[in-house]
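TICKET #2291
ISSUE: user wants both folds in one file
ATTACHMENT 1:
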Amino acid sequence: MLRPIYVLFALFAAANCDQLSVLYSPKAVEFSGNSRLDAESLPEVFGAALGYSVSQPTEWDGMVIKDPFSTANGAVVVVAEGLESVAVEGAKNYQLDGNTGSVALSELIQKSADHQGVSFEVDLKESSDSFNTPLGTVQPDDEEVKPQHLKPKSNKADSDFLRQLAFLNGLSDLLVTSTDRIPTVHIVRVSFEALLAAHEPNSPALEEAKKLFVNALAGLETASEKAFDGAVIVGLVTASEGQLVVRSKRQAGAPKQAETDDVSSHIIFPDLVRCFINSLQLINFINHCFQQNPMNLATKYNSNYPVIFNIILWFSVVLVFSLLAISIVIGTMDPGRDSIIYRMTSTRMKKDN
């Protein structure tokens, strides 16, 4: 009985995966393939691209460091909250296992601070008129956003989203014109949740919003490349974790048709959603633990470990026995005329003998 339910939940989780898209990377850092990546490893991936040491080694083969002396000097990461994926031309896309990638990215700020780097993180949906960065104050650039299907004057969700894009374009302008020290890590969060609640999934307004977002990403990519002189990695991470919550709020706010509909929308549906989310989180945790060490095996070491170990071990053994033999020989040496002790003593001592 539990097995079909487990399979159903697992299939649903696999179909609703977040995504990492690498828009730009320096020549020394190559992204290839389409293997899946653990969402918890996102800070390690961006940290490795910046030349930081990796605290949790992973077997993910999507990134190769060709030149460790020419890694990226900066990382610009945009988080699209509410979306499962965004189609960006020319980007390398990787499915993420788990829905904690958006939260895990905050660890990249700490990694940068440990390496004396300046970083900042901003949530554009909480910005009003402007927001401050280490580069200065970002002002919204409304001129580049000209919607056709979005109605900012009559729909607050559309207005708030276009405001976020204006801030994103303003950040691009600031990156190009700034002469101060550019922060190492930029994490910018753009929310689609209110927009998804206000429009249907395949509506022209939502499709236009995605196109405008992609255009803003292209501008940010170009500005970042110029600001860091090509030594930058630009990424996009989607975070669809909040979609169920948004849709449950839409159901709760729908007009009442009957008393039974009211009970199902306000009591039963939220309980099922919470139960379903908890089940998915439990399944992801079990799968993560099982994938980490399914057979409880010992720690896997590098292939060069036994070679280095044997060199150090036998060199130490030979050195110890050599010192011991030399000490014994010198200690038992006869201080005669032909010995080294005789030749190194003073002339007076030799005459006395």
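ATTACHMENT 2:
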Amino acid sequence: MDIFGILYEDDDQEIVEFLNYQRRTYTLRMRVDHMTLWDDHDFRIRFRISKVVVLQVLEHINNQISSSTDRNHAVTSINKLLLTLRFYATGNFLITSGDFLGVSKTTASLIVRDVSIAIAKLRPRFIKMPTTEREISKLQRSFYQIARFPRTIGAIDCTHVKIQNPGGPNAEYFRNRKGYFSINVQTIACPNLKIMDVVARWPGSCHDQTIFKKSQIYYNLINDKWGNSLIVADSGYANSLHVVTPFLNPQNDIEELYNESIIRTRNPVERSYGVLKRRFPVLSLGLRLKLETTQAVIVACCVLHNIACDNNDIDPPILDIILPENENINIEEQQPNGENARQQLIQEYFSHL
């Protein structure tokens, strides 16, 4: 048989399959009312936050995620939110989260995208740096009470959130030093573990200092928006007039005292990562979504974390799985940028303690 005969046979087969195609029967799956089915304890185990927090979040985003009609058994707003939270809580495939609420994988994907974007849009309300002198002073006192480190308004660091290969010509930019694809997420935390700023748009190969210097926080610091206030960081950042880091090799008792104080003072940002990733394991286990949706999920988790903290829901339920530890990939001491606050603190404060 010649090549043309083979091609014609393939075309005929496609036409026959098209003509014989039968659409799958429309099925309705049972949708459980999880708000009434579970008590508060079991609800927190399954969705990682309390019912009070869920209802508060729903109040803020209901208009953005509600269906325009009830036709065809449209998914309710509360079920959309619970499906998204279940996805955050398990890190499973979308089809698993869909089965939990009785919807298809496609519907689950759309719901996770829409709800994540709606929650992420709450960022200006729930994730913010201090704006008034009173808020700045209160924050400085809170940090001072940890280890007597002065003038501090925030602890900064970065954490890697594992993602699937985003594809395209720039995919390798997302491969970090450990060899897997990730987004390098910068956050600033306060003593009560709330997140005051989040940057979730940089690929895993970017250094922490690069992300910081391209952020709005850096611009505000060098323009003295918070006066002489300080941000404490690890040695992956450069010392400056507003950012201070530990000594990698302290030479005397004063520098060792300084190191002990700053390490304890910046501990909240490390603890916030632990709480955030235990509450929403999807951030540890990895996200298999489009890049834009992944970024929305990260910010949404930070918003939910802060709302939970506002409701004294700080410690998430214990998991029955072991999550990967938070990795500080980019630790390499940066050289001070000329005059810096670390030297000033050593000379004017720690030498007199």
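RESOLUTION: both attachments delivered.
EXTRA DETAIL ON ATTACHMENT 2: The first helix runs from residue 3 to 19.
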